[in-house]
Design a protein that fits this description.
single chain; three-stranded antiparallel β-sheet; alpha+beta; 3 strands
């Protein structure tokens, strides 16, 4: 799976959450933040002691970031020169309450990362992941 596909899949997953999810936070850290040495240490933990050790190591190295539960941590995922705009709450019925968020940015200024999720942090995280996917695709296409 390409980086672009991984980011889109993560954004889709974030949008289905009802609230914060630490395992998703760790996946986001591993995809967007971790360096190769950190990923190697996580993999060594997995091979020696299984997923619980790998998750423990990832949790320690990620500095406890809670992208799916914290607006500040979610904001740290927003690419440079991208701006959150148009955050709205909609509740057409009691069972369908969503936060909608658009991120605009990039050199073109008109690119948009859109998301709908159960909380503001989830919406911002998903939109930031979609923006990163757009940048990843652009870099792939333009070298």
């Amino acid at each position: 799976m390409s980086t672009n596909e991984t980011l889109i899949a993560l954004a889709d997953r974030v949008e289905t959450l009802d609230g914060p999810d630490r395992s998703v936070d760790i996946e986001i850290w591993a995809t967007c933040v971790a360096n190769q040495q950190q990923l190697n240490l996580v993999q060594i933990g997995r091979s020696l002691h299984g997923d619980s050790e790998a998750n423990f190591r990832a949790d320690r190295m990620s500095d406890g970031r809670r992208y799916t539960g914290s607006l500040d941590d979610a904001l740290s995922l927003v690419p440079e020169r991208w701006t959150p705009r148009q955050m709205n709450f909609s509740a057409p019925c009691a069972d369908n309450r969503k936060w909608t968020l658009n991120l605009f940015g990039g050199k073109e200024g008109g690119r948009c990362g859109h998301s709908e999720a159960a909380t503001p942090a989830l919406a911002l995280t998903a939109a930031a992941l979609r923006a990163r996917a757009m940048l990843s695709e652009r870099e792939k296409n333009h070298g």
